[in-house]
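Annex B. Sample input.
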Amino acid sequence: MRTILVSALIALFLLSPAGAASQAWLAPVPQAQRVGEGVFKRLGWSVYTARLWAPGGVYTPGKPFALSLTYEFDIARSRIVDASIDQMARLGAPIAERPQWRAALEAVLRDVSKGQSLAGVYVPGQGATFYLDDTPTGHMDDELAQYFFGIWLDPRTSEPALRVALLGNTQ
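Annex B, continued. Sample output.
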């Protein structure tokens, strides 16, 4: 019972504007507020909860935003990188012409444990900075970042229901 109460209090804090402000990685997103969130499932199992943050809680292409993924179980970096490469290729990313992208993803993504979050903060023209919980893990260039975030935000995503949940009422 105590665990449920503590979890509920943490959830309420994170949903509040004060909770959003406490996540230092949101600093590059002016007036960051949550746009939406959704759960990515595979074979009926929840893999992660995705949350999209944008200025004033409204996602606008060409403006800064942040995407965080909070994992439901341990996943190795190699699996996250492989899945990212596969999804970007599905969206038409020039993976064969950019072999350095795998190394760039390996540099910024990490092994995750249950309850940990990977977050990416995109600033147009500057690329994206990544975090494991609140610890910076690295930066990727603008072109790769656009394809990477397309996994969730591109209209051709393989998970259209998750995209709708992330975009809330903004699209």
